Amino acid sequence: MDAQGYLAILLRRKVTVLTTLLLVVILVGLGTVLLPKRYTSSTTLRIATAVVGSVDYTGYATEYADRLMNTYAKIAESEA
After folding, report:
1. What's the pTM?
2. What is the pLDDT of residues 19-32, one digit of tens each?
3. Residues contacting residue 29 through CB under 8 Å, at least 6 positions apart
């Protein structure tokens, strides 16, 4: 069967095809509207502040990093 044969079948059955298409669009729209909205997210903040460093060694100020991390956590949890 060639493309013209398939097109002829679709044209003969256009009421069935359009009804099915309309029904599917309505059902998908209703499903989208009726589903509960659920937004979730999570993140991990890892902060390390280099105080002194060289090619071989880098020291970190852990107390400052803790305070900075707490500040960023408060900012992340606050309203926009």
Report:
1. 0.43
2. 999 999 999 999 99
3. none
